[in-house]
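The instructor's notes for this session suggest beginning with a concrete chain rather than abstract definitions. Hand out the sequence below and ask the class to guess, before any prediction is shown, which regions might be ordered.
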Amino acid sequence: MVSRAYYAAYNVSVELLERLCQSEGVNLRVEKQASFHGKLRAILVNSGDAELRKAGEKLNELRLWRNQADYEYDDLLHDTPVRVTAALTAADGIIRRLDEFSGTPGSRRREAARRMQEYQSR
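After discussion, reveal the predicted structure:
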């Protein structure tokens, strides 16, 4: 369940970038590779928007939990009901932040999209 929570939030984050490309006319490269997970989190954190930064930071925390639940077999505490509930709550919070951002005024979206494109082109 922790893994599913992470991927739900990750996929909504990817959709946000794709929508920004269309609505704001920016060229953000969305890659279908495992290495893009880290890039996506960094793009959000470096967007210049406080809510997107928080979403990116929380997505990173959720990714750490996912890795622990999926790969640290010697410690079964990573996929307990408490952790699953925390992961679902974190994913919900990320998705809500991203949805709220999508509905913000155009100038805020344009500025964040410009900064994300600038960051990604480094």
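Then share the key points. Residues 13 and 84 are 20 Å apart (CA to CA). Residues 2-24 form the longest helix (23 residues).
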